[in-house]
Amino acid sequence: MKGGKQKQYEILAILFYFTENIAMNHTPPQPVTQSHHVALQNGGRVVIPAEYRKALGYDIGETLVIRMEGDEIRIYSLQQAVKRAQQLVAKYDKSKKSIVDELIAERHAAAELE
After folding, report:
1. 5-39 as b/e, with b when 16 or more CB fall inside 10 Å?
2. What is the pLDDT along the chain (114 residues), one digit of tens a residue?
3. Model pTM?
4. How far apart are CA 53 and CA 48, in angstroms?
5. 8 Å CB contact between 15 and 82
6. What angle do CA 98, 24, 76 make, to 5 degrees?
């Protein structure tokens, strides 16, 4: 991968680091309003009920993140993961500088040295 696409993946990797190692440990549990029983199918497939997909705005083919927390599995969208990471970073970054812009500048400087 070259150029902008590589930078996007690097930025996402940093955001996922924050999400996986910090943000998810500070997310308060959400109240359960209803539950469904679903069967584990061939290949480990599980169908997310339509009303859940609709309520969460998940579209067919959308990339989701799956994570084990203790003895539970959590599923959320890539967009939700990035949003959580951005919110977490914003809490700790009082400088109001763009971390993304700083990362891009560092990558440009490193590329010039190569």
Report:
1. eebeeebeeebbebbeeebbeeeeeeeeeeeeeee
2. 455 666 666 666 666 665 655 555 555 545 556 788 899 999 999 999 888 888 888 898 888 989 998 999 999 888 888 888 888 877 776 776 777 788 888 999 999 987
3. 0.50
4. 7
5. yes
6. 90
